[in-house]
């Protein structure tokens, strides 16, 4: 009886030791992962705010359509990022960086074609930078949830870049 109890205890201990600890795995995020989440957070927030501004200031139907897509898709991306960030203990906030704050201030003084030109050029620049950011995460990140997020949204960002670039050529 003692032998059966010891074998049962050993088996239970072995199974417990082999069980993957999801919490520990989720916290397995390198500096690349953490930096990516912070940058993606700032980018999503900026895209939503800039898109909202473009919806009210743009005079171009294509720019307005693009801006609405930015608000819709980056709002969803931000919600998804919040779940990923919680898993690696990174705080995400609805905030934008100083560069985008300055851009918003500049755009706030413009109307019509001048607004559309500055806005869409900034979108091309931002989406080029984000393609690089997301590609870097896919190749150098260690946390699977963060890498999955980057892989999921990279095609969207590439599409946004192509659309913004196409709109830019119409001015």
Supply database-style keywords.
mainly alpha; 171 residues; Ferritin; 7 helices; elongated
What does it look like?
InterPro entries: DUF4142 (IPR025419), Ferritin-like (IPR012347). This is Putative membrane protein. Pfam families: DUF4142. By secondary structure, this protein is mostly helical. The protein has a single domain (21-168), classed as Up-down Bundle (Ferritin). It has 7 helices and no strands. α3 runs antiparallel to α4 (61-87), α3 packs antiparallel against α6 and α6 (112-140) runs antiparallel to α7 (144-168). The N and C termini lie far apart (85 Å).
* Low-confidence spans: 4-26
How far apart the termini lie comes to 85 Å
Named CATH topology: Ferritin
* Domains (count): 1
Give the CATH H-level superfamily.
Ferritin, core subunit, four-helix bundle
Helix content: over 70%
Strand content: under 5%
The string of secondary-structure elements, in order, is HHHHHHH
- What's the alpha carbon Rg, rounded to whole Å? 22 Å
The number of helical runs is: 7
Mean pLDDT: 87
CATH architecture field: Up-down Bundle
Structural class: mainly alpha
* Biggest sheet record: none
Short précis:
The protein has 171 residues and is mainly alpha-helical. The protein has helices at 2-18, 22-26, 31-57, 61-87, 98-107, 112-140, 144-168. The protein has a single domain, classed as Ferritin, core subunit, four-helix bundle (Ferritin).
């Amino acid at each position: 009886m003692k032998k059966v109890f010891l074998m049962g205890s050993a088996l239970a201990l072995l199974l417990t030791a082999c069980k993957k600890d999801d919490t520990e795995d989720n916290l397995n995020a390198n500096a690349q992962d953490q930096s990516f989440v912070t940058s993606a957070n700032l980018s999503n927030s900026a895209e939503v705010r800039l898109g909202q501004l473009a919806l009210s200031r743009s005079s171009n139907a294509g720019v307005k359509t693009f801006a609405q897509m930015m608000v819709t898709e980056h709002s969803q991306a931000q919600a998804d990022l919040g779940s990923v960030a919680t898993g690696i203990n990174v705080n995400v906030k609805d905030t934008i960086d100083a560069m985008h704050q300055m851009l918003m201030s500049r755009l706030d003084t413009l109307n019509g074609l001048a607004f559309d030109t500055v806005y869409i050029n900034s979108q091309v620049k931002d989406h080029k930078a984000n393609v690089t950011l997301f590609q870097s995460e896919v190749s150098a990140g260690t946390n699977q949830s963060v890498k999955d997020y980057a892989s999921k949204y990279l095609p969207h960002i590439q599409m946004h870049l192509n659309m913004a670039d196409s709109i830019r050529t119409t001015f």
